[in-house]
């Protein structure tokens, strides 16, 4: 596992050294999506919908929907099992125009067992301002399957959530005068003063004038008027392809659940000694049954027999030499010869001792 990690990290190190396009390092001010949400009904389920006694809101919205369609069911008692209440979410992409289509995600909010094969009824999608920006409708592609019998049930994936590709039509556009901008702000996805300074330098070199200025670790401002170009769109098209080599932080990320360890290229460890081992207590029961001889008086007796032992295993005290590059760091840790989960505990201890010179992130 550790050798595989070494090969993986060295490959990633070589890739990070390559220049990256500015469009992959920053978000452009005003060029972003908007989240949409709606509440609707899924119909046509094969008996896997909401139990209306446990989800009364499903019955309420269904009655309102039927009433809008001209069917008055007030006071009527109906208990269909092929209907489910759902939340519908989507993202309105930047510069989306009326009539365009976007994908939507549908998630059950009641006690429905599956949305497989269901159809979402026309559902308006609202933005944060309460306005309707899209309307969703269509057949759901569920992300799993579920089957059950009288005494057993099996579920694979998540059958209570699904997607509708191109399931919503844009009805309203986000008002934004992009063409009227006089300046642009480039927001770095990972704030860093060194990376921001490199972006400023690369942009000024590209345009041959001082058009960009770093305002802080996460922002670079670009004066559109100083570029001599016709519109912000032309400036962005030229900015996106400029190559910059980003600066990365020394960081170690571990995931305790899966035993994954990821190290950045600039991670350093000071010279340190590590002892790692486990104390194991093992107790085994081997009862012995004793029976009387044939035609003899007596009773069958179970004689207990126990075997207790204490074992100690581990690597003893090992020295990890200080590493000047990632290859030496991983080689030193690999010399301990422990499993990835034990390696996580060792890295925690090294960090607590002050010998790990990197940001330590535990997920």
Low-confidence region ranges: 1-16
Helical/strand content category: alpha+beta
- Rounded to an integer, what's the Rg over CA atoms? 32 Å
Q: What is the overall pLDDT average?
A: 79
Number of domains: 3
How would a crystallographer describe the biggest sheet? 6 strands, antiparallel, barrel
Relative strand content = 35-45%
Q: What's the count of strands? A: 22
Write down the secondary-structure element order.
HEEEHEEEEEEEHEEHHEEEEEEEEHHEE
Distance between the termini: 19 Å
Q: What order do the strands of the largest sheet run in, or round the barrel if closed?
A: 3-4-5-9-7-6
**How many DSSP helices?**
7
Map the helices and strands.
Elements: H1 2-16, E1 20-21, E2 26-28, E3 34-43, H2 56-68, E4 83-92, E5 101-108, E6 119-126, E7 132-139, E8 141-148, E9 153-170, E10 183-188, H3 193-207, E11 212-216, E12 219-223, H4 224-227, H5 232-240, E13 243-244, E14 251-255, E15 260-263, E16 268-269, E17 272-285, E18 288-290, E19 301-303, E20 306-320, H6 326-334, H7 340-352, E21 356-357, E22 359-362
Parallel strand pairs: 14-22
Antiparallel strand pairs: 1-13, 2-10, 3-4, 3-6, 4-5, 5-9, 6-7, 7-9, 8-9, 10-12, 11-12, 14-15, 16-21, 17-20, 18-19
Helix pairs in contact: 1-6
